[in-house]
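Re: folding output
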Amino acid sequence: MAFIEDLRRRILLLDGAMGTMLLSGGIKGCLELANVEQADVVADVHRAYLQAGADIITTNTTCADALCLKQYGLQSRSRELAKAGAEVARRVADEFSTTLQPRYVAGSVGPTTRNLTLANDIKAEELSAAYADVVGGLIEGGVDFILIETAMDAMNVKIAVEECRKIDGEIPIIVSAVLSRIEGRVASGATISKFLEDIPLEEVSVVGFNCSNGVKTAEASLKMLAAQSDKPIVFYPSAGQPMVAVNHFAKDMEALCRAGLLNIIGGCCGTTPAYIESMAKVAQCWRPRKTGKKN
């Protein structure tokens, strides 16, 4: 796959937050509905990130699963909204893509509203069906890979990966977890080692973290991940609370790239095209993390 080969050659730049941009643009209610009703606004967000230098744009589908959509009465439209989000992103990515700099579309699959390990009001079959609709719509809409992001529960990840593989046996899969405030643990409380052990890692192309609280708080956890897995690593943190200034954010990310820890960098909650633009030079200046042959 071109994407897998590319991330071995250079550090790829992921986009920033979608919700931040849509909300600032006046979108209200269900953000995923904008994929159909205000697709031009979603497309403009994608363009802003590509103009800032992003190699990868993420579909506006983090909450496109039926469980998240239920609060809006839109659960029956999950696959439709996921497909529409993928089609918008694909169209814009193709506008910017060149032979020298291909642009990729990441199909965002969020954590839903249930963690299967803890929830007592949902069965695995229901969660599987929810993931199947989103993944099916994303792949039909033309994404380059599936991004299972903001992951908290290894059981959810396992089911999401299984649904991906039922639909497409070849498409790359990235898994990105949320870190706990306790060093070396993901949000569910599991250690990084346990989380890796409990997900179908052999089916995953890239692992890493997103969201969390800024850049610096994740450094030790990233080093632990690098020591325990030879997979390429993605890291796209939030702007932090309080928000870290653009230049400081980029400087902190550069330190991690200099240390040879990362293959894909970007931003999560609160980040904007300005954050991504500030990291474009960082991505160009440093070599990606060296990975094992099995990747």
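--- second protein (sequence, then structure) ---
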Amino acid sequence: MERKKLLLLHPSEYEHEFDRKALKNLEGNQGLEKFMKKIYKHSIERINRISHSGSFLKITSKNFPEIYELLEEGCANIHLKEIPDLYVKREDSINAFTTGVKNPLILLHTATIDHLTPDELLYIIGHEVGHIKSGHMLYHDMAQYIKFAGEIVGEATLGIGSLISRGLEYPLLHWARMSEFTCDRAGLLTCQDLDVAMDVEMKMAGVPNKYCDKVDNKEFIKQAKEFEGYDHDSLDKVAKTYLIMEQTHPWSVMRASELLKWYETGRYDEIVDKHGKDSIEELEISCTNCGRMLKGTESFCGVCGTKVGNR
């Protein structure tokens, strides 16, 4: 199947409503901005990049050309202009993550490369590229390192920083989980095959390694559809908080369920039809903020000043 490059795709067009709602609540937290300024005085991003580049193997067009080509395609398919660095870490779990605000990098586990097909790996890469495209990385890194950062700042502020960090930790982790729903959509828009996306979600849910090349997602899709009755917003608040409050990712079956529901609305097809043109001149696009029709060559909307496209 020939995949389309989704020209001038904007992340607001596929953003999950749970992500939007959680981010709005998080941005209303008055202590967050002050705490972030304290953290970045300690150059956490720089330390983190040094650690990753010094510990893990960097994937380039020369040492692993097939994987690097998937990275290039992933960025092109959802219109991310700047290609991030890509590293691989020896781990037995199928997973990946992205870190860094100014210079983001993606880290793949070796099991992800070992047990996924090229199309499935493209879904994973597209998901991670989606975090960068949506501008998730500042709060995403905060959620990953807030405990550690709280200890650093706490020492410098007689414990006040650690108290603040505990008050921010759960809202940040909640938003981080909700942002995964948005980036699953980015992954699907990248690989452009729902079966591929479902296969990946199923493998991450726990398919034994020796069965990874024999999976049939029909029963998993059935399980995901049955899970629709446990909608995230309607799930008992106490139970929901108790079960997943310290996790950085939602349950895999819930992720599959949310992705299926979005796909079945027809919105996926609308986005691919709208942005999958051969040239920018063929696009019929409008400002995501005010709705003004655009030519596709603008950097900013002439009515409200909103930036057109992303990165």
